[in-house]
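JOB MANIFEST
job_type = single_chain_structure
chain_count = 1
residues = 432
[input]
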Amino acid sequence: MTDFFKDIEPLNYDPSSEGLAFRHYDADETVMGKRLADHLRFSVAYWHSFAWEGGDPFGGATFERPWHPQDDMGRAKMKADIAFEMFRILRVPFYCWHDADIRPEGDSFAESRDRLDEITDYFGPKMEETGVNLLWGTANMFGHRRWMSGAATNPDPDVFAYAAATVKSCMDATKKLGGQNYVLWGGREGYETLLNTDMGRERQQAGRFLQMTVDYAKKIGFDGQILIEPKPQEPTKHQYDYDVATVYGFLKEFGLEGEVKVNIEQGHAILAGHSFEHELALARELGILGSIDMNRNDYQSGWDTDQFPNNVPEVALAFYEVLRAGGFTKGGTNFDAKLRRQSLDPVDLIAAHAGGMDVCARGLKAAATMLEDGTLEKMRDARYAGWETDAAKSMLSGDLESAAARVEAEGLDPQPRSGRQEVLENIVNRFV
């Protein structure tokens, strides 16, 4: 026990509470035959909640935490003590980390690896005690200056080798802790200018690196999902994992479409010019939906603000696509979200997560009710009913000439039919 969250007791479901409590998230509530907790599979992001110090591009740290500065193993263990205390208060089943979040950088790769081993050994008993599991691990290959020109896509082969060693150590640690996924986020796998970039070479390097990662996972018996997290830009001008469609094309090119899935973040979808539900629906159609990072962007800002979700209609449409995909298997709902830099107090961390969990619970329950109601799916099916006829199926299996011949032979003069968008939006509003 620590005193960082002094006097804050574990949260309960209590809709009438005026204090800290869940008002919509009842972990044991049954939705579509499954516990709400098992649908949502909530996870806390170690980096935003404990490693981030409150800085932004225009100002330095605003948070004063007892584990700052994060430069020795004693403070790393203190941070772990407090992190697991928060997991206990929130009653979350999972957490996630980058290597750099949980251990300080060493003077050599070997020292950094040994520190990672030491802190993950420290995590083990805490996970046993609390019942909190690792949703996924990943490597921070964007923060240190060595990664300024990318990791797998770096023009320097020595950096590629260092990236391989880093991913190997992080995957080993993830497997040791029973992690259910391993994520690759190409934070600087892209370019700032084409004037100094060999795009073809860099894409080949990225593809080979991913093949090597998949091969190593199989070699060590890691049975979790391997995930790529799409993001279009920021920090680089253009990143090779721009969106779900781009990632799928990349996976197909390198023969990995059956090996790797995606971890989709709401904020990244918005930066790519899409909606969250678009990216989820496309991943569902392509069979590569693995997990999600739940957050939101400020629509008046042009960058990735990583705020906690507060828009139930948006969240409901996202979970509608997750449920249409059959729900999560090894993935989950990771709060890749951070406090505003003016939210200084420990209680703000608890309140932010509790509020996000309530929003997700409301959204998922609304999505489940919409799906069980069936009206949206019936109207969608009706719109495409013509394609279920024998003539339409025959046309698709035929050629252009035979399709064209139907027009004159049958005197076809198709008239437009309403898409009924406003009607459909009104139906959604009945539930959210």
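[summary]
The mean pLDDT is 96.
Residues 346-373 form the longest helix (28 residues).
exit_status = 0
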